[in-house]
Amino acid sequence: MPLKIRSRIIAICLCICINNTFSQSVVNCLNVDETGIIKKAYDSFEKDLFTHYKFGTDSIKTYRTFLAEVASLSIDLKKLPSSNSIQLARDFKKIANTKNSLWIKLSEYENKETIKSSTPSSNKKNEKEILIFNYRGGFIQCLKNTSDSDDFKEIITTLEEDGNVSTSLVSQRVYYIPDKEFCAIEVKNFIAFDIYYSILMVIEKAFE
Predict the structure, then answer these.
(1) Tens digit of pLDDT for each residue in 92-133?
(2) Which residues pair with 31 in a beta bridge?
(3) Which of 57, 113, 193, 202 is the most exposed place for a label (fewest CB within 10 A)?
């Protein structure tokens, strides 16, 4: 068996093992979500990805192809998202009203003044409508605290301090997490929400 193929098989097996090992930690993290929307959204995200890229069960290739396209701004947003995922993005907007929400209003974000310094200015009337990804919220913090990946933890820590980072740059950083750590369910959930659904929340009106 060629070395390259053997390495790919080993990497896929590692993904399966790691997903099984860490699935319980994500189940525990889901306890911060009283609505059940996070699990529904993640399942919809994975279905969209594997349906669109058609790499079978090759999780690494599927996720990394997605990240590469986001980073290079070449992703086809007309074909990738399903109507279900678009609707879930709209639902996330409706429930962005607590400290543990995945996205919250800028005016309600902890240490708002720090975020303001790195966010384009706006008048007070419109400020409350600006939504930012809640890197300090319960679910994301749970993913960070249960992860064994130092690279992943460092990415979140950096974003906690300055959330005004483009999705393409975040994708680049996540792309280079080593295979063994990249396969962890915590990382995949982060990709689903901070990258995929953050994009959908911006473009969902185009699907009306």
Answers:
(1) 999 887 777 899 887 776 555 444 444 444 444 444 468 889
(2) none
(3) 113
* Alpha-carbon distances, residue 179 vs 12, 49, 82, 151, 182 (angstroms): 9, 18, 28, 12, 5
Alpha-carbon distance of 121 to 141, in angstroms, equals 27
Q: Let me know if 73 is exposed, middle or buried by CB neighbors in 10 A (0-12, 13-18, 19+).
A: exposed
- Residue 4 buriedness (CB in 10 A; 0-12 / 13-18 / 19+): exposed
**Beta carbons of 199 and 77 less than 8 angstroms apart:** yes
State the DSSP H helix or E strand holding residue 82, giving kind and residue range, or none if neither: none
Cβ-Cβ contacts under 8 Å for 8 (sequence gap 6 or more): 58
Instruction: Note whether 57 and 171 are within 8 A (CB).
Output: no
Question: In the chain, how many H helices and how many E strands?
Answer: 12, 2
CA distances to 10, 111, 132, 144 from 189, in Å:
22, 25, 17, 11
On the question of pLDDT at 49 being above 60, the answer is yes
Amino acid identity, position 195: I
Q: For residue 126, what are its two tokens?
A: 């419109």
Cα torsion 152, 158, 160, 166 to 10°: value is -90
